[in-house]
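Quick note —
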Amino acid sequence: MNVLEVKNLSVQYPGTEGASEIVKDISFTVEEGGITGIVGQSGSGKSTAMLAVMGLLDGRASVQYGQITVNGKAPAPGRNIAMIFQDSLSCLNPSVKIGRQITETVRMRKGCGRKEAAARAEELLETVGIRNPALRMRQYPFELSGGMRQRVVLAIALACEPDLIIADEPTTALDAVVQAQILQLLRRIVRETGTALLLVSHDMGVTAAMCRNVYVMHGGRIIEEGTAEDIFYDPSEEYTKQLLKDAKGGRLREKEKRNADDPESGEETLIRMTHVTKIFDADEGVRDVSLEIRKSEILALVGESGSGKTTAARILTGMLREDAGQLYYRGRIPQRGRRMDSFGGKVQMVFQDPYASLNPCLTVRQALSEALDAAAGLAGRGAVDGRADRHPLTEQEKEERIRKILALTGLSYDDADRYPHAFSGGQRQRIGIARALITEPEVLVCDEAISSLDATTREQILELIFRVQRKIGFACLFISHDMHVVRRISDRIAVMYGGQIVETGRTKKVCSDPWHPYTKLLLEAVPEPDPVRAKKIKSGPVKEAAGTDLPDAAGGCCPFAGRCGYALECCRRERPEQYVFGDRGVSCFLYSDEHSGRRSSAYRMTSQI
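Predicted structure written out below.
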């Protein structure tokens, strides 16, 4: 039996040149107690179609359909359909505690009193895997991690007791381990409650891991449909074949050569952090982090949300000051009060959100020109690289730089006079990269620069970063939570967990033979675009991690001990140092002589997990 039936749905928006049709006569169904997927690139019309089904489109939209029914009746939003959106933070009221937001939904649905609603809210939080629900009920959304907020949104959806849950990109912003936990949780809820799930995603791996039936959308139309096995093993449309190819990733042949043991690659160290610590009020941040970025290499910094990756990047770029430790640029210590000045514009950053990182009031030309002016000003204030005498660029020189960087990043010179709103997400990210590269930096920091992009656009941006990096020769710190991506693009890898570096080494070696238990968990949690293999992903417990319950978890024990199946007694009392074996470093007591037994001098260290 079908829970949802949609026939001949179309959505149009008015425009200056006539109506623009975003969704074009699509029809699909969702089976009772099953998981159905709708997959396609960003801009294919997936989310618009879902909002139309929910009745949530604004008054400008013209929605036409032959039939939309839930269990044979017209849907009643808030009762028999619930929706989970991509950005959990924007779905929750930041000024209202979690408990109140859930209990209000329960009371609206059941018409019960506050006490009964509160008990039901705690039960729902327990259902979605949140430990200590009574505590979480008293907290605000900003006090929770991204994965926990997504669990809260799911609890609110379940409070509606829906026949159908529409999940629109519910795991896009989450790291691989938390994503795997949320997917496992969604599967369990479908199995135990009988609620049907419609999963909307651009991630072919997630779709393969979850869905029984799949619809492929492109250009506002459903171009292909079938079982997951039909779509992934025997696609008929070229577009679907390209989606699968992009999801699997092309092979960067030159990068595979660089991943070999090449003693000549990246010898000179440009930036080095030694024993850097930065702690915020909630005992979050980074502790005793040592890291170096070498000339002309791509170093990947990976880890889950909240592990400290962005904090480390902001210290490295001069946006934050460390509490302890030291930062070196070209062997010198930049002035603490004028660190960004000391870099002379030679350390640049590309941010995660291409929408928020560009000034909507500036054209592309103005944004690029502003970056050049800023770099020229910094270069005149005592740069470490000794270029303080560089003269400002003339307007003609600026224009030539702008022309070259637009061409290099795959944009047209005609784009220079357009504003950010006129570009797609992938094009905006190209502009962000162009703005960073136009100053000719020595170090480029990419902070989750592709995490919000679909597979095809992500592949294009990856190829762009790789190609330009090889041509110009800048060093790159590539921050990501996606192991599938970093194993393809980086020379070396540093894995972060709980504010510290837990493993470092050559990317090829770390990904093929992980030494730290957390690195192994990250690799096992990545879903492949293959229905059989993807359903075997491992995530650890569905329940929220208990590591924070350990005594003095902030500094007196291994931060991963609460989630580690290899934990020793010492892991709960002490924090491991980093043990170095050649080009490999690992922070785990399994590799210490003191706690794991003395090894002979001839012993060659291998993975202990």
